[in-house]
Amino acid sequence: MIVIGISSGTSVDAIDAAAADLDLRPDGTLYLRPLGHAEYAWPDHLRRRILAALPPAAVDLGEVCQLDTLVGQEFGAAARSAVDDLAGGDADLVASHGQTLHHWVVAGRARGTLQLGNPAWIAERSRRPVVNDFRVADVAAGGQGAPLVSVLDALWLGHDGPAGAASTAALNVGGIANVTIVGSRDEPVLGWDTGPGNCLLDAAVQRLTGEPFDRDGELAAQGVVDREALDALLDDPYYALPVPRSTGRELYDGEYVGERLAAAGVRADRLSTPDLVATLVELTAATVARSIADHAPPGGVERVVISGGGARNPVLRDRLRALLPATTALVTADELGLPADGKEAYLFALLGFLGVHGVPGTAAGPHRRQATGARRPVVLGSLTPPTPLPLAAVRGPVRRLVLTTAPSPRTAPRDLAAPSHLTTPNHLTTPRGSIR
């Protein structure tokens, strides 16, 4: 099955898309062949409206309604382009994360979450069924609804050695940074949002220079970390919350840095732009490194696998290497075969595939909970249109994910062929009623 995954992060810098050819074998091994990923620019006027609607803004329902439609139309255009650009016109399903407008957390517990981008518009434009709204089911089951990437990390990076053998920390640095600690395939995984990734940094650069982000870390490289300001920013109760935990722009909004510094009696205007940017990079690196140290197994982690926009910031990578133990390697997801820039979009392609097959999109965590904190395994997402897809139910768990460059299962050797319900070409009904 070829799935187009689309997402847009809290920075609203672009719509990310990825095409994945997914093949589930009878032994529970899921092969993922990356077909490509791309970024599609938001129209400037719409990006400004989305950013203006993010916390702490007060937004009326008329604006929410319009954004839900306009974002859905833009996701639909991106999905349609991705079908042609990445999958050669041959895709079966679209999986859309949506644009997060609000993540409602009270006393460390997620109570609700809102992603805009109505799937009917995506289905109409792409002419493909759409799976969307992945987070709500997890929240309803007592989970944080974020980060959802733990299931990808667990299937992809879990090893076959004994329990307690070397672990991996999968780090994604988008607007918010999150980590998954993965050991052997039979061990529970732990996932949580560590705190700010790029969101505070990007907001400061945008406000002070007009640029959307610190390209190649040039400003940060010119600056010096202000220790007093850094200490004031690190003194936030969020970092002491138990895991799993989640956060978003509701906490780390455009006023956050100024308010935290003012409360600590630190004058923000005494920091030069490079010094402020260097300090915010240090904040991300320090909170990530401390969080991994606090929650890693007794032996620590053997490697940190970094993805997301922060993986392209050389200053952030250097600071992470300096703050992580000398025995911990820092590698990019690219080095292991998954594009660092496309990981989130591939995640939602995976979640869409799991959802339409009735397979939970959550990974087992500690204390008989899921990694997100949910009480039970949860099938994520809703299907538009609601007509059930003619797919046979998956028997047994999905045990691991293997990245491959092998041809589609439709041309695979007989002894490696996928189950018939995944190799039959006519296995999805499109919104226009024809059979693909």
UniProtKB/TrEMBL annotation:
Q: Where is the composition biased (Polar residues)?
A: 421-436
Reaction(s) this enzyme catalyzes, per UniProt: 1,6-anhydro-N-acetyl-beta-muramate + ATP + H2O = N-acetyl-D-muramate 6-phosphate + ADP + H(+)
Q: Which PANTHER family match?
A: ANHYDRO-N-ACETYLMURAMIC ACID KINASE
Query: What is its EC class?
Result: transferase
Q: Name one Pfam family in it.
A: AnmK
Domain of life of the native organism: Bacteria
Q: What does the record give as EC number?
A: 2.7.1.170
Question: Which UniProt key words apply to this protein?
Answer: ATP-binding, Carbohydrate metabolism, Kinase, Nucleotide-binding, Transferase
Sorted alphabetically, which InterPro entries does this protein's record hold?
A: Anhydro_N_Ac-Mur_kinase, ATPase_NBD
Q: According to the UniProt record, where is the region Disordered?
A: 405-436
**Which amino acid positions bind ATP, per UniProt?**
G9, T10, S11, V12, D13, A14, I15, D16
- Biological role stated in the UniProt entry: Catalyzes the specific phosphorylation of 1,6-anhydro-N-acetylmuramic acid (anhMurNAc) with the simultaneous cleavage of the 1,6-anhydro ring, generating MurNAc-6-P. Is required for the utilization of anhMurNAc either imported from the medium or derived from its own cell wall murein, and thus plays a role in cell wall recycling.
Any GO molecular function: phosphotransferase activity, alcohol group as acceptor
GO annotation (BP), single: peptidoglycan turnover
The name this protein carries in UniProt is: Anhydro-N-acetylmuramic acid kinase
Q: Which family does it belong to?
A: Belongs to the anhydro-N-acetylmuramic acid kinase family.
Kindly tell me the pathway this chain contributes to.
Amino-sugar metabolism; 1,6-anhydro-N-acetylmuramate degradation; Cell wall biogenesis; peptidoglycan recycling
